[in-house]
Amino acid sequence: MGTPAHVDILCLSHLRWNFVFQRPQHLLTRFARRQRVFYVEEPVEDAAAGYLEISRDPSGVLVVVPHVPCGLDATARDREMRALVDSVVRSHQLTSFVLWYYTPMALAFTTHLRPAAIVYDCMDELSAFAGAPAGMLAAERALIATIP
């Protein structure tokens, strides 16, 4: 399995990269041997203004931690995340990329992107988890509907 080396991967996940080495890390570290991989975590709500913390994992994966202001409502948070993800796309010149989702909630701030392909790697029934966001099932249906 593989994708051409000239196609980047922009992954959006609800998991922290350094929490536990599991499915996303297994797959994406392999892809990082041949192409650029950006792993965007859920935002940390601790900033006066939005910013990105980007580090390179020893595997080559670029781990992107968005920091957003505390107390934003869902609409404002999605607007902030859209701007931050757009800055990754722009500053790293992602022109041909796979948009790889581990959380359907990221669809709210990525619908405007034009990826070469979309992957929804659904490894858990996230809506069944305690504390799952309202609208998780609707977001999942909407994400699946975007995949040709």
Summarize the structure in words.
- With 148 residues, the protein is an alpha/beta fold.
- The protein has one domain.
- It contains 3 helices and 7 strands, in the order E-H-E-E-E-E-H-E-E-H.
- Strands 1, 2, 3, 4, 5, 6 and 7 form a 7-stranded mixed beta sheet that branches.
- The two termini are 20 Å apart.
Structural class: alpha/beta
Radius of gyration: 15 Å
Q: What about the largest sheet?
A: 7 strands, mixed
- Share of helical residues: 25-40%
Spans with pLDDT under 50 lasting ≥5 residues? none
How much is the average pLDDT? 89
The structural domain count equals: 1
Determine the N-to-C terminus distance. Answer: 20 Å
The fraction of residues in strands falls at: 15-25%
Number of helices: 3
Shape: globular
- Count of strand segments: 7
The sequence of SSEs as H and E is EHEEEEHEEH
Task: Give me the secondary-structure topology.
Elements: E1 8-12, H1 23-31, E2 37-40, E3 44-47, E4 51-56, E5 62-69, H2 74-91, E6 97-101, E7 117-120, H3 136-146
